[in-house]
Amino acid sequence: MLQYSLRRILGMIPLLFLTSVVVFSLAKFMPGDPFGGEIDPSNTNPEYIEDMREKLGYNDPIHIQYWRWITNFVQGDFGNSTAHKMPVYDLIIDRMPNTIFLAIIALIITYIFAFAMGMYAGRKPYTLGDNLIAGYNYVGLAIPSFVAGIIAIYFFSFQLGWFPFAGSVEVGLQPGTWEYYVSRMHHVLLPALILGLMGTASYTQFLRNDVIENSRKDYVRTARAKGTSESSIYNKHILRNSMIPLITFLGFDIATLIGGAVITETIFTYPGIGLLFLESVNRRDYAVLMTITMLLSFLTLIGNLIADLLYGIVDPRIRLG
Fold first, then answer.
1. Which value, to the nearest 10 degrees, does the dihedral of the CA atoms of residues 154, 159, 163, 164 take?
2. Burial annotation 182-217 (CB, 10 A radius, 16+ → b, else e)
3. Could you tell me which PANTHER family the record lists for this protein (predicted)?
4. Positive or negative, the Cα torsion across 32, 37, 42, 44?
């Protein structure tokens, strides 16, 4: 498994290189630049703007700009944000904990509901409960997350006042105190519920179908013939085999939740990587835009590797060579 992991990690290098070329090219092909999009020419000396473009190398040939960026990038120098006037590394480090916290809570919510509903629907197919769960799945797949977020804010924030509609923590609280952590959980819960529950539908349907399929296999008939209880059959035998499709999603969720948080964080004005990414696109903040895109690409490759490794743990019959 160690050799397999090393080969996969080495194989990521050319993929990340190709990704960097595409990301850099798309960023440079965007109309405008940080100065044209951020500064009003009528209030700023055009000569100063042109001097800044020359100083930052925006007037250099594109291959020279790429080489300068990629050589600095691999050395850990991600550049400076033209919009926030600070190093990109510090900016991402400041926002990353919020996104990770949101992603973890959303992932926990997703798997709790997916396992509960998927196992129930798989054990009792074509019943009223199964049909209700199927109806929820169809609604979850049909409604975009931004629509669900707006509806949730209207009802649970404005009408009922149960959750805050913006921010990650209440202003004025001292970090490290009990009130601070309670406030962070209070602020993250509603966006995490939207992000988690909207992603539950596909998980639930996969688990339900796999449980039904596995319940008809020979090893289940053998277990029933031996007098094994239905609870033990479903919880030990069927569940273990039905978890394999979900393990595939688990690896990809590392990047998917962070990437999917772009819309959710924007709707809830939650200060994380997703909101920062959208701001960087609107403000032509190339350094931030390219760094976050490369980060998501790297997390996608790592998630794929984790999914493959978890295959061998969940199902010992799978061998990674």
1. 70
2. ebbeebbbbbbbbbbbbbbbbbbbbbbbbbbebbee
3. DIPEPTIDE TRANSPORT SYSTEM PERMEASE PROTEIN DPPB-RELATED
4. negative
Please, what is the end-to-end C-alpha distance for the chain in angstroms? 7
Of 196, 198, 178, the residue nearest 186 (C-alpha):
178
Beta strands 86-87 and 80-81 are antiparallel
CATH topology classification for 91-314 = MetI-like fold (1.10.3720)
| C-alpha to C-alpha distance for 44 and 19, rounded to whole angstroms | 36
What mean pLDDT is predicted for residues 138-151? Answer: 84
Distances from the Cα of 124 to the Cα of 82, 120, 134, 186, angstroms: 57, 6, 12, 35
What pTM, to 2 d.p., does this model score?
0.78
Apex 152 CA angle, 148 and 154, nearest 5? 120
What is the DSSP track for 90-133? HHHHHHHHHHHHHHHHHHHHHHHHHHHHHHHHHHSTTSHHHHHH
Share of the chain above pLDDT 70, in %: 85
Q: Where are the alpha helices (DSSP H) in 143-232?
A: 145-152, 178-198, 200-214, 218-225, 230-232
Handedness of CA 222, 228, 234, 236 (dihedral sign): negative
Q: For residue 215, what are its two tokens?
A: 């319940």
pLDDT tens figures, 198-257: 778 878 888 888 888 878 777 777 877 878 777 777 777 777 777 766 766 666 666 666
Q: Tell me how many helices (H) and strands (E) the chain has.
A: 14, 2
Q: How far apart are alpha carbons 120 and 290 in whole angstroms? A: 44
How is the chain split into domains, by residue range? 2-88, 91-314
Whether 321 and 4 have beta carbons less than 8 Å apart is answered as: yes
At residue 86, φ and ψ (nearest 5 deg) are -155, 160
When pLDDT is cut at 50, 70 and 90, the band that residue 40 belongs to is very low
